[in-house]
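Input (peptidylprolyl isomerase):
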Amino acid sequence: MRSSMAVSAFLMSLLSLSRVGAFAPAFAPSSRGAARLFSSSNDAEEWINLTEDGAVKKRVIEEGDGSSVDRGDAVVVEYTGKVAERSWSVDDVISCWLSEQQGIEKPRLIEALFVEFGIDGEKITDKKFFTEQFVKTGLGIDRAIANKNIVMGARRLSEEAKEHPAGKVFDSSKDRGAFKFTLGKKQAIQAMELAVLSMNKGEKCQIITRSDYAYGKGGIKKVGGKAILPPFASVQFDIALLHE
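Output:
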């Protein structure tokens, strides 16, 4: 009798566990950490943040022997711009991609859900994870047009990354001579200005910047519409601040 009761209790406990599993959410939040821009602590030590949010990072390649510069100064730089790997954290996705998507109702709620589900650069481009079903059920975006638009936007990120791989040169002063501009006049992208303001003349450095401090949702296009640099591209610049 006792043996029979023990077996019954065991079966009931299994049934209880199976019911818990049956009602688990279809899209459980991830506990994995956000993607990092640099793969090791040694790499990270070489770089400094030029912005509070870490969106623009710099490392010195060669120290300068000249004076510093300030807003209002005319400067001359040589540079090479390359596509950088888009290693977005969750905050990066929200700041430079989600904020630019149209037709999203209750954006603050959607941002909170992106954080809850850990939707970083890897997940936003994962076709098996970021589906129309997930966007509807997990994020609550059930309006058909808004749902389709946000999923298509995520798909384009993957396609454009294949067409414009990391390391591809998209612009260089070698093609047309050194670039002269006045700091603080919005004649250069924000990341370039921040970098030069941190330099001494004669210095050479490298920066990596998120798209919202570079070319944003528009990227760079040739006449006729072909993209030289896709929307939302992270970029790397090698910069030399000349003595003039």
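The chain has two domains: 41-85+166-241, 90-163.
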